[in-house]
Write a structure and sequence with these properties.
single chain; ABC transporter transmembrane region fold; 4-stranded antiparallel sheet; Rossmann fold; 15 strands; 6-stranded mixed sheet; 62% helix
Length: 744
């Protein structure tokens, strides 16, 4: 199947674009849990306040917080805040600050100078540590207060009482808070900042800011970003779907063309290696399997690894302490996929072979439906079909049962991992080591990781079948036709009088132990009829099939006008030949389209002449449609004799230099046979005519009759000469002609 990857080369740009869109889709999908976490953590729990560092703070609040900071921290905070005095309308940004912070109308406030991530990172840590220094110091004054109660009460702190203590707090030496500061440093950074945000919320309320509006605005903003990401993900998915469908359709169109073109160049030797049903299946069902794999594979096989790897990275960013849960999930999923693969893979490989058998039985039954009905073997055919059908059904059911087991197992793992994340996450939340939003995001990432493996597991249904189909297609494409055109072909002379000569020709089928034709020598001259007769299996049809190079000779040469037919192209060779097989083959369409198969540029007059010579005028004219009469598939709406006459007419329309009739009169009655041969004699007076026949009456007027017996020439001459010199011919004639006819 890997060898078929060359068909993707024209679509490399589309594939790169599709993969780029998959990255866009994956990044969009992976960021959604992050923003969902922000809505829970910041939007709900923190009332939309993102940072522990207040963007503005009352003068008393500033004094309170800096009182619990070190000298260095106080200097850093002072450098990043500006005191804005009440009534100082000349100060830059005063009007905007007054509108945002109504407290400025009555009290001085401190406003943060710049708001960038680096400043927030530095100051968040300072305000967080100051908050917990304050908490630890307060706890030291009231030892009966527990950790949880002191932390939870931060959201309802009465700052007016604390501000009353500021004169005392500011006079205390900094060493007073050293022990509380050491304990604060032991508190996790995330917990410090979460608690500090509760202080910041109180400071904002003190400033007169609308906390509810802040919360609503934050949730709406994050929600809008999530909505935008969803639209980007949808657009990327649509783009990938379009590109994958275009790539798959283009690749499979080329595949079908190449398979068809390859089969068109097969000789009879190659056709013997593949059944017709198998070739049809390979060019339809097998190619469809490749197409399905490409459509799904581009979207799933490329997207799932991106989603899985990205999910692992994002999940570990949220909580590295729960990374073992992801590892456990991946191990469980991979184990399930491995077990399913081992069990189901052999059955997947078997599917296409069973489809071949099913198509073969169906095709044989439909092709031979008249014989089946005539012999009353419908029940036998039903049992034969039912046997193959049941085997195919049993194989498919086994595969489907295995795959059905896969889905609930994967869902069980997903639900189990969800419970495990909640169990472990709840413990960490109770210890303030994780926020609720982070746990929810981690859970979403775990589901995305498992879902990506679930999507990959879906491909286990397609990949094995597609791999088998790809190998079967490659098997056809890899066949080198045994009959090839020469590198430097010669040109056949353009004339209406062509000679065909067999020079010591022998032929052996591939793999056979002995020749079926031995040392055949004769010359077929223009304007003459060369006929071949012999018992069944004597090699008549094999001999004439060597002329159009359906097979190539094993030894000797076949020459047309003294040029070896292997030295010219097959197209040029067959342009000189009008071939009429024993079994007339017609194509769906009209009588005219079938006749013009010999020459697309043939005029209506040419069609009329050809049908007159072929004795087909009566039944062509019996219908009001005439040449426009519809021919159904395989010519099932005309008789065997009519098929043969139309096949002869088709060759006549071609106006070739060489006519080959492979027992093409077998379905004609004696009167029609005689009339047709007389008309042919006049119409093909300059052509070389070769006839294979079983009836003496058909060939007795031929200028040259060649008698074959077990692949050897046992007689050559006219009818009268052979009656005298060839025992084999005389036996055949005696079995078909009366004494009076033999005496004539």
């Amino acid at each position: 199947m890997i060898k078929l990857s060359r068909y993707l080369k024209p679509y490399v740009i589309m594939l790169i674009l599709a993969i780029a869109l998959l990255f866009v889709q994956a990044i969009s999908d992976l960021n959604l849990p992050n923003y969902m976490s922000e809505i829970v953590n910041v939007g709900i729990q923190q009332s939309g306040i993102e940072h522990a560092t207040p963007e503005a703070i009352s003068e008393d609040g500033y004094t309170l917080m800096t009182a619990f900071m070190t000298k260095e921290q106080q200097k850093t905070v002072a450098d990043n805040y500006t005191l804005m005095t009440t009534g100082d309308t000349n100060a830059a940004g005063y009007e905007a600050a007054l509108k945002s912070y109504p407290l400025l109308a009555t009290q001085n406030i401190y406003v943060l100078n710049t708001r960038d991530s680096q400043i927030y990172t530095t100051l968040n840590q300072m305000f967080g540590q100051a908050t917990w220094t304050f908490i630890n110091y307060s706890r030291s004054l009231n030892p009966s207060t527990s950790d949880s109660s002191s932390t939870q009460s931060m959201s309802s702190v009465d700052f007016t009482k604390i501000y009353a203590m500021l004169p005392v707090l500011t006079r205390l030496p900094t060493s007073t808070f050293d022990e509380a500061r050491i304990q604060a440093a032991k508190t996790p950074q995330s917990m410090q900042e979460q608690t500090a945000i509760q202080f910041t919320k109180q400071f904002y309320s003190e400033l007169g800011m609308d906390i509810g509006a802040m919360q609503t605005m934050y949730i709406l903003q994050i929600g809008a970003i999530m909505l935008l990401l969803s639209f980007i993900s949808i657009a990327a998915a649509i783009g990938v779907g379009y590109l994958s469908a275009k790539v798959a359709a283009g690749v499979c169109q080329t595949l079908r063309q190449d398979i068809f073109r390859k089969v068109q160049n097969f000789s009879s030797t190659e056709f013997n290696k593949f059944s017709t049903a198998s070739l049809i299946t390979r060019n339809t069902n097998d190619v469809t399997q490749i197409q399905t794999l490409l459509i799904m594979g581009i979207r799933i096989l490329c997207y799932s690894p991106i989603l899985a790897v990205g999910g692992i990275i994002f999940a570990l960013q949220r909580s590295s302490s729960m990374g073992w849960i992801i590892v456990l999930a991946v191990i469980l999923v991979m184990a399930i996929l491995g077990i399913v693969s081992i069990i189901a893979m052999p059955r997947f490989i078997k599917i296409q072979t069973l489809v071949d058998k099913l198509n073969l039985v169906t095709r044989e039954n439909l092709t031979g439906i008249m014989v089946v009905r005539a012999f009353g073997t419908q029940k036998f055919e039903e049992k034969r079909f039912d046997g193959v059908n049941q085997e195919t059904t049993a194989n498919n059911l086994f595969v489907n049962r295995v795959m059905v087991f896969l889905m609930p197992t994967m869902m069980f793992i997903m639900n189990g991992i969800t419970l495990l994340v909640i169990w472990v996450g709840a413990g960490q939340i109770s210890q303030s080591a994780m926020q609720v939003g982070d746990m929810m995001a981690f859970m979403q990432y775990a589901m995305q990781i498992i879902f990506s493996f679930l999507m990959i597991s879906m491909m286990f249904i397609m990949i094995p079948r597609a791999a088998v189909s790809g190998d079967r297609i490659q098997e056809v494409l890899a066949v080198e036709p045994s009959i090839k055109d020469p590198a430097a072909p010669k040109q056949l002379p353009i004339n209406n009088r062509t000679t065909v000569s067999f020079d010591h020709v022998s032929f052996r089928y591939e793999g056979a132990e002995e020749d079926v034709l031995h040392d055949i020598n004769f010359v077929a001259k223009p304007g003459e009829t060369t006929a071949f007769i012999g018992s069944t299996g004597s090699g008549k049809s094999t001999l004439i099939n060597l002329i159009p190079r359906f097979f190539d000779v094993t030894d000797g040469e076949i020459r047309i006008d003294n040029i070896d037919i292997r030295d010219v192209t097959q197209h040029d060779l067959r342009e000189k030949i009008g071939y009429i097989p024993q079994k007339g083959v017609l194509f769906s369409g009209t009588i005219a389209s079938n006749l013009r198969y010999g020459d697309q540029n043939a005029s209506d007059a040419d069609l009329t002449i050809a049908t007159e010579v072929a004795q087909a005028t009566s039944f062509v004219g019996s219908s009001a449609e005439g040449f426009d009469r519809e021919i159904s598939q395989g010519g099932s709406n005309v008789s065997g004799g009519q098929k043969q006459r139309l096949s002869i007419a088709r060759a006549l329309v071609r106006k070739p230099d060489i006519y080959i009739f492979d027992d093409s009169f077998s379905a004609l009655d004696y009167k029609t046979d005689v009339t047709l041969r007389k008309a042919l004699k006049k119409h093909t007076s300059n052509s070389t005519v070769l006839i294979v026949a079983q009836r003496i009456n058909t060939i007795m007027n031929a200028e040259q009759i060649i008698v074959l017996d077990h692949g050897r020439m046992v007689g050559k001459g006219t009818h009268n000469e052979l009656l005298k010199t060839c025992d084999t011919y005389r036996e055949i004639a005696s079995s078909q002609l009366s004494e009076e006819e033999l005496a004539l």
